[in-house]
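WARN no homologs supplied; continuing
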Amino acid sequence: MRIDRYLNECGICSRKEAAIAAKRGGVTVNGVPEKSVARHIDPETDRVCYLGREIAYRRFTYIMLNKPAGYVSATDDKSLPYVTELLSPELRRMGLFPVGRLDRDTVGLMILTNNGLLSHTLLSPKHHVEKVYRAGFRDRLSGAAEEVFAEGLKLLDGTLCKPAKIVCDPDRMGGLITLTEGKYHQIKRMLEAMDNQVVSLERVSFAGIPLDPLLDRGEWRPLTGEEEALLHRAAEETRAP
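OK structure emitted
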């Protein structure tokens, strides 16, 4: 791998910035200044420093974000603020993107990565990765709601949802909803099919990874090693035969 690509994929700088730094003696490989960023290195064994800072190579990066309302999940919608704007410049240079989408007014857990294959696997309709949401409702749910969800609710347009799970709050004005699919505005449409309406929606878990309660809205942190393992395990366990 070329040095400039290495530094760029690590989110440290652009390739042009890497070349400028190298000419000024700001890039070393195994302790030796390297003037040409076109040189190929082994990312697994060579030690690269940029402006005195050792840069550890990671092929993929995984971030947990507590999405605030008003942000869209797309990375290319310039008409509204999008979730990657909440990340540091270093992370934005890595080309991170959301694993799945949340509506503009839905808040809570989002996973962002640059691992396209894993993201595709987790979101494939052939898979059934669990996503858990806390929802608030306009009206009190009937006593049959749990059974209706478990059987697979039919939306107003005739679309049939896969069986889902709802654990209602004692007053039945909200609850935890677990889905294994991701139809467009699914929970809102499910409640509309029950002559009700969602008034608040927060994703609190994805693939067994809970939203970190220490993250305020708009804050993010890298996934832990255990959380990364959960993502990979979910992809493996839900592979279609």
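The longest helix spans residues 225-237.
OK
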